[in-house]
Design a protein that fits this description.
The complex is a heterodimer of chains A (about 300) and B (about 100). Chain A is an alpha/beta fold and about 300 residues long. Chain A has helices at about 65-75, 105-120, 160-170, 175-180, 195-205, 210-235, 250-260, 275-290, and strands spanning about 15-20, 30-35, 40-45, 50-60, 85-90, 105, 125-130, 135-140, 145-150, 240-245. The chains are: A alpha/beta (about 300), B alpha+beta (about 100).
């Protein structure tokens, strides 16, 4: 049988990174934050509250292993032995299943704290669009949560839905944003953002002769509207920042921001690591308070 | 912190909001609620640096809160909700 190899269009880029300006040997506290989400897992290693290294990869079916793999992936980028770690905080859906964690903290607290770090202390509203839920969080200048709302009952408008669409349409997830703008006229949003219904609706549209780009545009618009309905319920105080994988999808983001009527903040950092950054920062704060691991 | 627990779906928004700055974790809501919706925990998982206990909506109740609260919310002649009445700090509110 000939033909092309079966590609996995949903597969986003896994990455690890090490900060060349930091020498872990000089650090007083090495703290680790591990965010085991429904779709992706991140491990961030911090040296005295600065990002030293991180690894970001897909969550497998086994939470403890996903946590171990993400940490090993981050360590791979460094020359630091794993046992140098002073404190480890687990967060995300799988937070109670992080074997090396000294403590678990919810992703709500961690995302606010992480956004405060990667976007700066001006952030007041954090929108986290993760693999399976949407969180809207308001925080103060220290990254402490002042108001939050989470919808995890339904995965409509989340990263996993976008993966399903990328696969259905055979468009790599990294190209979804750009491709969704390659339409002559912006179509109306698909009627449902429910992943299951939207998929069947999209199949119908394709059969009617819609281009893939047009279907993507309609779906991105529906996701933006769905995300907006959650943000609107809590209210938005500027500055506004987005964390999670969806922040990288301009197809959704550029349709969402006009609804909100604000600009979103920009960052050099990978938006997917925000939760793990927050977790590592809490670990650092606990160590500084003398509440770290007993030695 | 205003902690909202619940969900929104096609039929509406169903959130219980607890103002954790007012809540002192006394636990009156826990015993007042006939559906056992509330719990008091010693460490607030959403605020790791907080020192005192706090009330929250039990994890198993959040995704069916509309139905758990249903018996206290008849369509007409709705009395004051027992949880709202029990909370002397006035920390509890419902979105629907």
């Amino acid at each position: 049988m000939g033909g092309e190899e079966k590609r996995e269009f949903w597969r986003w880029t896994e990455s690890n990174w090490r900060n060349p300006d930091i020498d872990w040997k000089n650090a007083r506290y090495i703290t680790v934050g591990i965010d085991v989400g429904s779709v992706s897992s991140q491990a961030v290693i911090m040296a005295d509250g600065q990002i030293f290294a991180y690894g970001s990869m897909r969550t497998g079916s086994d939470s403890p292993n996903s946590a171990r793999n993400a940490l090993a992936f981050a360590l791979e980028a460094t020359d630091m032995p794993g046992d140098r770690m002073d404190y480890c905080v687990g967060t995300g859906y799988g937070r109670v299943n992080v074997p090396m964690a000294d403590r678990s903290i919810t992703e709500i607290a961690c995302h606010a704290r992480g956004a405060n770090f990667i976007y700066g202390p001006q952030v007041r509203t954090v929108l986290d669009v993760g693999g399976q839920d949407i969180k809207a969080i308001q925080c103060d200048e220290k990254g402490k949560v002042t108001n939050f709302l989470m919808n995890d009952k339904c995965a409509a408008g989340t990263g996993r839905g976008m993966e399903v669409f990328a696969d259905l349409l055979g468009v790599s997830i990294n190209e979804v944003g750009d491709r969704s703008f390659q339409v002559d006229e912006e179509p109306e949003a698909v009627a449902s953002t429910c992943v299951v219904y939207a998929k069947s609706e999209a199949t119908g549209l394709l059969r009617r002769g819609w281009s893939r780009e047009r279907v993507l545009a309609a779906y991105c618009r529906a996701m933006a509207e769905r995300i907006y309905s959650i943000v609107r319920r809590m209210g938005v105080i500027p500055e506004f920042a987005v964390t999670g994988g969806m922040a990288k999808n301009r197809g959704v983001m550029e349709r969402l921001m006009p609804l909100i009527g604000l600009k979103r903040m920009e960052t050099e950092w990978d938006t997917q690591i925000a939760g793990a950054v927050g977790a590592a920062l809490f670990g650092y704060a606990l160590c500084q308070k003398g509440k770290g691991r007993e030695k | 912190m205003l902690a909202s627990y619940g969900y929104g779906d096609g039929s509406g928004d169903y959130f219980i909001t607890i103002d954790t700055d007012k809540c002192d974790g006394c636990g009156e809501c826990v015993s007042a609620c006939p559906a056992h919706v509330f719990v008091v925990v010693d460490e607030d998982p959403n605020d790791p640096l907080r020192e005192e206990p706090v009330a929250m909506v039990a994890a198993g109740k959040r995704k069916k809160i509309k139905y758990e609260c249903g018996p206290c919310k008849p369509a007409s002649g709705r009395p004051t909700l027992p949880c709202v009445e029990a909370c002397k700090a006035e920390a509890i509110s419902h979105s629907w």
